[in-house]
Amino acid sequence: MSNTHSQVARPSIWRIGGHLSRQQYWSFAAIGLIVPFTCWAALSASGWVDPVFMPGPASVISRIWTWLVEDDLTGDAIISIYRVAGGFALSAVLALPIGLLIGAFRPIEALLEPLTDFIRYMPAVAFIPLVMLWLGIGESAKISIIFIGTFFQMVLMVADNVRLVPLAQIEAALTMGATRYEMIRLVLAQSARPAILDTLRITMGWAWTYLVVAELVAANSGLGYAILRAQRFLKTDTIFAGIILIGLIGLLMDQGFRWLHRRLYPWAHTRG
Questions:
Q1: How confident is the model at residue 271 (pLDDT cuts 50, 70, 90)?
Q2: Angle at alpha carbon of residue 263, lines to 156 and 143, rounded to 5°
Q3: Count of C-beta atoms within a 10 Å radius of residue 228
Q4: What is the pLDDT of residues 169-182, one digit of tens each?
Q5: CA dist., res. 20 & res. 24, Å (int)
Q6: Which of 12, 76, 136, 215 is positioned for an S-S bond with 219, CB 3.0–4.6 A?
Q7: Max Cα separation, the chain?
Q8: Given this model, what pLDDT does residue 108 score?
Q9: Please, are residues 227 and 214 in contact by the beta-carbon 8 Å criterion?
Q10: What are the Cα distances from residue 62, in Å, to 6, 47, 86, 246?
């Protein structure tokens, strides 16, 4: 009986909702990253796949270095980050208040949510001809494609975040005589902030997925443009390098959002 009790009481990392120390977390993270790259290296070294179609990690790393010192990788990365950040920021500035209103008021939900649901299923790439017609081929066109790809999703996710605010908080504020403006600013927006920050983190990932689509619009620089140009000449090492670099930049941004979330809302990361 005592052995059974000690087994139950002993904390397990495999328990549902269990806890990992920082060292354990990074150990699992390292395994999750190293294993796929090891398999990739083994597959490319086996000779089963033509290097034209599957270059090895060493070839890709060499291409990244050459890109950095000879082909202006820094400039390509900066312009791509600028385009993603511009489209994402424009989405956030508009989507946050609209999503808040949709989540707060049923008439606004009925007015805007069906239209938003309808548009969000339209592929962003289908808007490229219209964007080029309306905005030309400058930076505004590329930013607009990223905006279209993220805005409508963000609106609906923010609205859902607001709807999940506990009803008890709303009723308590009403009992205390809060006005509609105070309800939105002090109750709904404040309570939904942790979830909204997570929504921003997720939609930032979507913004990066639309980068290559955005750089279809007559671009002559950027990581997505380099991938598309390399595809024409079967330079798969550049394609792999571009994909990995976009993933690394996106991962850094994602970890930045996670760090900010932990700093602002530490209570949301504690589990009983």
A1: low
A2: 40
A3: 17
A4: 887 887 888 788 88
A5: 6
A6: 215
A7: 76
A8: 93
A9: no
A10: 53, 19, 31, 17
State pLDDT tens for residues 39-96: 988 888 888 888 888 888 989 999 999 999 988 899 999 999 999 999 999 999 999 9
**To which H or E segment does residue 141 belong?**
helix 139-163
pTM above 0.70, yes or no: yes
Pick from 155, 151, 132: nearest CA to 90: 151
Which two three-digit tokens encode residue 4? 């059974």
| Residue 83, both tokens | 């385009």
Taking CA atoms, 99 is separated from 34, 105, 157, 158, 207, in Å, by 39, 10, 7, 5, 18
The Cα–Cα gap between 106 and 110 comes to 6
Q: Express as a percent the part of the chain with pLDDT over 70.
A: 94
Mind spelling out the 3-state secondary structure of 169-229?
HHHHHHHCCCCHHHHHHHHHHHHHHHHHHHHHHHHHHHHHHCHHHHCCCCCCCCHHHHHHH
Strand, coil or helix: 24: helix
User: What is the token pair recorded at 204?
Assistant: 């930032």
Residues constituting the chain: 272
